[in-house]
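SAMPLE LOG
Freezer: B-3
Tube label: C17
Construct: single chain, 128 aa
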Amino acid sequence: MKKDILNRTDIELIISAFYNKVKSDNLIGFLFTDIVKINWDSHLPIMCNFWENALFFSGNYTGNPMNLHQHLQYIQPLESKYFTRWVSIFVKVVDAYFKGPTANLAKQRAKSIAKLIEAKVLQHQIQH
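STRUCTURE (predicted):
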């Protein structure tokens, strides 16, 4: 039986599995591997901090995802389908490992975050 997301170790499992799928995804993988060329050793702990804060209010994340995605928009125009795929992969990964209120919260936060960033980034694109 699946358990709920309880701690940083659970978040690390999600983030690792999620980005392994993202890197090889035929729609959005190139954004991470070819366009941004993410340094995974530094990116993964930051994403774990982000999600630990989003789910458990740890206070250990400082950053501005909106600015990062708006900058990416100048390098490679983003499309709605990229955000949809990102959410789809995230939800599938959470569902593969976890079940419960915090797992549901993680999926809901992912959807909300993606919608917000998509709206702001694509709106910003229209204005320029």
